[in-house]
Design goal:
The protein is mainly beta. The chain is built from 1 helix and 7 strands, in the order βββββββα.
Length: 117
């Protein structure tokens, strides 16, 4: 995912917490939590494999009690989904639907529209 200025979303982001950052010549891993002002959280994981020029990602939007709202990811193949490997889990792990390739900006714009700020 492309780095994004989160200040553009400060109207509904309460806090950003870095969970993990690992960098080597072969791989870059970034995990962080974005706490939102509507008492939900967005967990973001990006794994860049430089040799393959590939980024695996997962953006999980959830309630404070950890109930899944939506997770967008490309980490696993789901051959029955026409957009595979891009997909989303809506409301539960087992409810897997097609998704376009996502960026953090697209995810935050979606959330912003859903919470109507």
């Amino acid at each position: 995912m492309v780095k994004l200025d989160l200040l553009d979303f400060s109207d509904f982001i309460a806090k950003v917490i870095l969970i993990k950052e690992v960098s080597s010549p072969r791989i870059y891993i970034l995990k962080y939590k974005i706490e939102l002002k509507n008492d939900t959280s967005l967990y973001v994981k990006e794994v860049t494999v430089f040799a393959d020029n590939k980024i695996d990602y997962a953006c999980q939007w959830q309630k404070l009690d950890t109930t899944l709202i939506i997770r967008w990811d490309n980490a696993h193949e789901h051959p029955s989904i026409e957009s595979s490997p891009y997909h989303q889990h809506v409301g539960s792990e087992s409810n897997i639907l097609p998704s376009e390739p996502m960026t953090l900006e697209k995810v935050l714009n979606y959330i912003k529209a859903q919470i109507a700020i």
